[in-house]
Each structure stands twice: as structure tokens, then as C-alpha cells.
Design a protein that fits this description.
It is a single chain. This protein is an alpha+beta fold and 161 residues long. Among the domains are: 35 residues, no CATH class; 68 residues, 2-Layer Sandwich (Translation Initiation Factor IF3). It has a four-stranded mixed sheet with strand order 1-2-4-3, covered by helices on one side. Strand 1, helix 3 and strand 2 form a beta-alpha-beta unit. Helix 3 packs parallel to helix 4. The radius of gyration is 32 Å and the shape is elongated. The model has no long low-confidence stretch (mean pLDDT 74).
Length: 161
């Protein structure tokens, strides 16, 4: 039975072939039956593949885009997910984008919101829901005041809440 365990341990690489070949399976107190003998290992210089190397980590802070003048807000009405490129191009230029997703199917609308969330996160911006199917994407250099929105909602004639 012990021989079967030794063969399995040898097959799995848990013991060296030299240990397996020894006919006396006497283990000392400092070493268990299946441990390798204590001997200095020769340093092996191997280079890890590029996909396993870890890149140096550093804190990334958002950088404000200098001299970007926001003179208009881009409003887009995508009808299918392939229209996502236009949203990304306008947003990367530092322009706020309003996405009206009311003309899209539910599954494509979810994909579009996922894309917009990733785009905004990657550029340190923000995304706000204006209505259930309209979203505002703002770059980091644009601030939207919530105080004005709540004051306008309270002063609105049609506000029934």
C-alpha cells in the first residue's frame, strides 16, 4: 500500500526519482515520508512570459483638459447599437452628450447604457438619468448642478408631487 502512494507521489512530482528508487522507506523525524530532502536549490533564471509580468502600479488622477470650451451639448437619438461610435467620439472630444434611447429595443438599450457607463468611467466623467430613457454623459470638466434642477422642479407649474 505504501508503495502505491509512493508511485502516485512520484507521478505527481511530489517526490524526487532518487527518493523513489531508495528501497529503505525510513523517514527521519526532521523530514516526513513524502517531503523532499533539504538541499540547497540552484538558482534557475527563467524569464516569465509578458502576459504574466505585472506592470508597476501607480495612482492615476484625472487630468482636466485645458482650453476646452463647452459651447454646446450634443443630442443623439441612436436607433441601434452600432450608433455607439458617434456617442464615444463626441464624448472623447470633451463634449457633453445627451442620449435619447427611446427608439431602441430593450436589449440594445441595456448594451448602450453599459457602453456609456464604461466610457464615462474610463474618462472620469459622470452619467445621469434625465428620464427613464434619456441619459446625460458629462466629461470631467463639466459640472451639473443638482440645486438648479430641484429648484426648477419645485417651481414647476406641472409638478404634482
Amino acid at each position: 500500500m505504501a508503495n502505491a502512494f509512493r508511485k502516485a507521489a512520484n507521478f505527481l512530482g511530489l517526490v524526487d526519482d532518487e527518493e523513489f528508487d531508495q528501497s529503505t522507506p525510513v523517514a527521519t523525524q526532521s523530514e516526513s515520508r513524502f517531503s523532499r530532502p533539504l538541499r540547497p536549490a540552484a538558482p534557475v533564471e527563467t524569464e516569465s512570459p509578458t502576459y504574466l509580468r505585472s506592470a508597476p502600479t501607480r495612482a492615476v488622477t484625472p487630468v482636466a483638459q485645458p482650453n476646452v470650451v463647452v459651447d454646446h451639448i450634443v443630442t443623439l437619438h441612436p436607433r441601434m447599437y452600432s450608433d455607439v461610435r458617434g456617442i464615444g467620439e463626441h464624448y472623447r472630444l470633451g463634449q457633453p452628450v445627451i442620449m435619447n434611447l427611446s427608439d431602441m429595443e430593450e436589449s440594445e438599450r441595456k448594451r448602450m447604457i453599459d457602453f456609456a457607463s464604461g466610457l464615462v468611467f474610463g474618462h472620469y466623467g459622470s452619467i445621469e438619468r434625465v428620464t427613464s430613457k434619456v441619459f446625460l454623459l458629462t466629461p470631467p470638466n463639466v459640472k451639473v448642478s443638482n440645486e438648479d434642477k430641484t429648484a426648477a422642479a419645485q417651481a414647476s407649474f406641472f409638478n404634482q408631487s
